[in-house]
Amino acid sequence: MNIIVTGGAGFIGSNFIYYMLKKHPSDRIICVDKLTYAGNLETLESAMEKKNFKFIRADIADRRAVYRIFEQEKPDIVVNFAAESHVDRSIENPEIFLQTNVIGTSVLLDACRKYGIDRYHQVSTDEVYGDLPLDRPDLFFTEETNLKTSSPYSASKAGADLLVMAYHRTYKIPTTISRCSNNYGPYHFPEKLIPLMIINALSDKKLPVYGDGKNVRDWLYVEDHCHAIDLILQKGRVGEVYNIGGHNERANIDVVKTILKELGKPEDLIEYVTDRKGHDRRYAIDPTKIHTELGWEPETKFEDGIKKTVKWYLEHRDWWMGIISGDYQTYYERMYDKR
Ligand code: NAD
User: Fold this and answer.
1) Of these residues, 127, 131, 223, 230, which one is catalytic?
2) Residue 217, helix vs strand vs coil
3) Topology annotation, domain 2-187+222-247+281-299
């Protein structure tokens, strides 16, 4: 099988590439990535050594480039991870989110239409469902929950999902969509909650926590997400949406305290900062469908996953030190230091 993985130089895409190279060594993986600020070729260094791996730098919204890649590589499967993925950046500048997440997805779907494909898989997010109130722990997102987005990021991801469904219905493209909760693990870009807190704590810097810190996220170890996507590719029903989540809800402040404890750092490093605009209160996935239909369940407990993640950041300082200098520093100062 020839599998195009877009956005494979980012966090989840790179973990998926390593997962697939190990699990399906006879498949050929072609990573297509624009290498935005969030993409990092160093992440793919070990993959580059494999004969069945190829990296192509391209923008998924560049129609000519994408068609050329389809002509040359003849993919059987496309898994689309490529996206602008950071909510805060989408609040500052929504346009690039529409360009990559919506137009980029439409170009990939057009290429599938033109050249044919066995499966197009869209990696989506639980954020397309909006949020749930904190005082209703009985409520969960199912695949039938209405799309009700809060940020330009989630709106662009919902737009992409709707296009995928439309291309399936109108052009009979064999599509699947997965909507996953928050991931954590190795190669996570330092602007996101868990790596940001680990890195700041390691440097004895303040840990900026939005609002009252009580916003709840449903955390999943990235490898469990990769396993779920692999199962959907193998056994998932075409035209379907699958929610992925591990019933592992935690308030942001509790996640931050767990990290501090793990690193032996004091809680007075925590600094509450002005809340994110439109900040979603609670996300919680009901993963019954993927569990009953495909037999998926998460294998990594949060307590173990967070230990592994902290250890990874301790052992890979070169990886994140390279990122947090330069442009990232300017972004960080704009977001947190000047509040
Ligand atoms: P990321 O920001 O770490 O990586 C995104 C990758 O896409 C980068 O390598 C970047 O260079 C690439 N990219 C961006 N624009 C591109 C373009 N126009 N053409 C080609 N490549 C481009 O993101 P992530 O956290 O790994 O998320 C991957 C996917 O999973 C996204 O679609 C995101 O919406 C979804 N998702 C993420 C989470 C999470 O917790 N991180 C949860 C659910 C779903």
Assistant:
1) 127
2) strand
3) Rossmann fold (3.40.50)
